[in-house]
């Protein structure tokens, strides 16, 4: 038995807020799990501290599946982003401990490597098409094989995915939610020229991706997908809100452009119909919001039966702990597609020293036992929590809309 002796939550803000769970066994092994929920961080911290940690003390850290089931089935109130992020933190920390106990990198415990590395995509953004293309060319020069394109929309003051810095993008930008103005009509006119110029500048040997961020109706998304077909996008991400999974059936009827969705999913039930009916091509559920490695492996196995590949969310609102966990997962699953990769700030990297590395468009989690990530608690304490909200959207007539 590898008895759990203690656990605590560390909240810090080295450039943005992170919630980290640290579990320690009586033998002195420690494991880390990310519990960050962008804009609602303290809700998960409280859930862990007040409700989960008391139930962990004295349990066998090796019994990962049993503990997962205890926290999911035993809570009665199942699912939801707060609950599943808390469960994910426990799950990943226990996998980290198991890897250290075995003196093996985590991917070896998940069945070993299926590939030499995980293809990642970077984020090229700009205030206009030309600026986005210039940034995309920089990513291509660095060896990226896949690049996400986001550009400002003429007539709109701000646009999702476009930041002042060409490498770092943090949407949670204010002490209270900022309000943006949105127009689907203006947006739909702006995307095809972006892809046309991107293909002219970047050629056909780089994958091009685009994030709609839940902004369109199904028929609008179908029209955009059809307009972009000549440029062969790798995927269109989050075309429409997926609470009604059948929405994607309508999109499928109108375009052959690959579809990706799922970064805000927290359960296999959120994507059951989408996968069963093959309404999507990539499932973007992430380790931290979908219940950890244990549950994400179930989603990936189910997806594999239906020719759906993985494309895990990997924005900077996930700490290096989740980035490492995702890479171990990516290396081990047969139906891996692509991994999002947004570079963390130097402050974040200092708080979370890690073994994962990038080279030639691929990332590898490294060979350190467990996750290969540590937490500098003394340094973390110098970056106290700062309240930050995600923005909200309004249409030009003032109607609140999907952000």
Describe it.
The protein has 403 residues and is of the alpha/beta class. The protein has two domains: 4-106, Enolase-like, domain 1 (2-Layer Sandwich), CATH 3.30.390.10; 109-366, TIM Barrel (Alpha-Beta Barrel). Helix content is 35%, strand content 17%. The chain has 13 helices and 16 strands. The protein has helices spanning 41-56, 64-73, 81-102, 106-109, 129-141, 184-202, 218-228, 247-252, 272-276, 292-304, 320-332, 346-351, 377-380, and strands spanning 4-12, 18-25, 30-34, 118-126, 146-151, 179-182, 207-211, 235-237, 259-261, 282-283, 309-310, 339-340, 357-359, 362-364, 392-395, 400-401. The strands form three sheets. Strands 4, 5, 7, 8, 9, 10, 11, 12, 13 and 14 form a ten-stranded mixed sheet that branches. Strands 1-2-3 form a three-stranded antiparallel sheet. α8 links the parallel β8 (235-237) and β9 (259-261). The longest helix has 22 residues, at 81-102. The protein is globular, with a radius of gyration of 20 Å. The model has no long low-confidence stretch (mean pLDDT 96).
Order of helices and strands: EEEHHHHEHEEHEHEHEHEHEHEHEEHEE
Structure classification: alpha/beta
Question: What is the CATH architecture descriptor of the largest domain?
Answer: Alpha-Beta Barrel
**CATH superfamily (homologous) name of the largest domain:** Enolase-like C-terminal domain
Which shape, going by the Cα principal axes?
globular
Taking all Cα atoms into account, the compactness measure Rg is: 20 Å
Question: How many discrete domains?
Answer: 2
How many E strands?
16
The CATH class of the largest domain is identified as: Alpha Beta
Oligomer designation: single chain
Mean pLDDT: 96
Task: Summarize the biggest pleated sheet.
Answer: 10 strands, mixed
Unreliable parts: none
Task: Please give the alpha-carbon distance between the first and last residues.
Answer: 47 Å
Supply the number of helical segments: 13
CATH topology of the largest domain: TIM Barrel
Strand content: 15-25%
Helix content: 25-40%
């Amino acid at each position: 038995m590898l008895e759990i002796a203690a656990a605590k939550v560390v909240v810090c803000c080295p450039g943005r807020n992170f919630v980290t769970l640290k579990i320690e066994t009586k033998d002195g092994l420690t494991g880390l799990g990310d519990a960050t929920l962008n804009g609602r961080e303290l809700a998960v911290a409280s859930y862990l501290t007040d409700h989960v940690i008391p139930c962990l003390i004295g349990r066998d850290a090796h019994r990962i599946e049993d503990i997962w089931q205890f926290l999911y089935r035993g809570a009665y109130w199942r699912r939801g982003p707060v609950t599943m992020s808390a469960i994910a933190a426990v799950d990943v920390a226990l996998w980290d401990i198991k890897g250290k106990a075995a003196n093996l990198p985590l991917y070896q415990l998940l069945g070993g490597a299926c590939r030499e590395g995980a293809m990642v995509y970077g984020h090229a953004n700009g205030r206009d098409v030309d600026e986005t293309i210039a940034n995309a060319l920089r990513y291509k020069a660095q060896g990226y094989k896949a690049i996400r394109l986001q550009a400002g929309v003429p007539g709109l003051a701000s646009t999702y995915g476009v930041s002042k810095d060409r490498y770092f993008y943090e949407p949670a930008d204010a002490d209270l939610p900022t309000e943006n103005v949105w127009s689907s009509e203006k947006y739909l006119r702006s995307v095809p020229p972006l892809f046309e110029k991107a293909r002219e500048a970047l050629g056909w040997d780089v994958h091009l991706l685009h994030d709609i961020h839940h902004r369109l109706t199904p028929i609008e998304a179908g029209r955009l997908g059809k307009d972009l077909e000549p440029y062969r996008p790798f995927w269109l991400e989050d075309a429409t809100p997926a609470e009604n999974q059948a929405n994607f059936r309508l999109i499928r009827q109108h375009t052959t452009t690959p579809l990706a969705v799922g970064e805000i999913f927290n359960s296999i039930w959120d994507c059951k119909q989408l996968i069963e009916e093959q309404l999507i091509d990539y499932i973007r559920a992430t380790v931290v919001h979908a219940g950890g490695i244990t549950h994400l492996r179930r989603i990936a196995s189910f997806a594999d039966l239906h020719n759906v590949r993985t494309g895990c969310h990997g924005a900077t609102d996930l700490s290096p702990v989740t980035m490492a966990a995702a890479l171990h997962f990516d290396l081990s699953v047969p139906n891996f597609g692509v991994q999002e990769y947004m570079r963390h700030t130097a402050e974040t990297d200092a708080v979370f020293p890690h073994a994962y590395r990038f080279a030639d468009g691929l990332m590898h989690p490294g060979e350190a036992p467990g996750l290969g990530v540590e937490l500098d608690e003394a340094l973390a304490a110098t970056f106290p929590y700062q309240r930050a909200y995600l923005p909200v959207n309004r249409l030009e007539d003032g109607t609140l809309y999907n952000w």
